[in-house]
Amino acid sequence: MTIERMPLKANGHVLSRTGEVEVSRMFDDMEPIVSGGAGYVCTVCNRPPTYRFTDDAVHVQEPCPYPDGITTTITISVPSGKLLVSDDLRPVFNWDDADPMSYETTLGKAQATWQMAGVGCAYGPADNCGLDLYRTGPDSYVIASPRIDEDGNPSLPESDCLTSICTDLWAYSCADFEHWKARGGDPTALGWSDTVVDVPPGEYRFIHHSGERGFDRDSADTVIYAHVERI
Ligand SMILES: [Zn+2]
What we know:
It contains 2 helices and 15 strands. It has helices spanning 106-118, 177-182; strands at residues 2-9, 20-25, 33-36, 51-53, 58-60, 72-78, 82-86, 121-125, 131-137, 140-145, 161-165, 171-176, 195-198, 202-208, 223-230. The strands form 3 sheets. The protein has a 6-stranded antiparallel beta sheet. Strands 3-2-1-5-4 form a 5-stranded mixed beta sheet, with no helix packed on it. Strands 8-12-7-13 form a 4-stranded antiparallel beta sheet. The N and C termini lie far apart (62 Å). Zinc ion is lined by residues 13, 42, 44-45, 47, 64.
């Protein structure tokens, strides 16, 4: 039995933090296997890799279908002009998750976002970072985590902040308040961090960024999770 570490040519997948994998051979003349150092599935596309071995590297055969990660773009209707902003609008809005582990992957989170949009909820995974909804123009908004400089000044003007989102669930959820009530939402059961924001009635597009390759949640600058616009 021999074990060695070899560079991984991941073909766009995200499998190994170090860029290397552990390769073992039971006997010198046996086909090597990847025995450690890499995930069983790509943390973006949720697919198990098929490896190919050369003298100096381990290669993943099939390319990742999402080499740039996933930007989710969804649209919800807000005909009432009353946008309910929360971290959690379950059970009124929920998604089917046949594979609970898939939510750990970028694709699983994107599927949750797409499913939630299908029932009228703009859902976006975040960290437990605290998010704010800011107006950036007459019909444009961002959902962002601002930074505070050493003088205590926030990186986005507080006067543009419409509401804050407590991210205990590590997500935001936005929906038309009347649509939420029509699906059984109980206004008396709303929490302290659930707010209803007045916006112009219409269709709202949410472009969510946290699944993008290179999205930096620890950036020193404002972290924009979503751009929102009335279309
Ligand atoms: Zn992949």
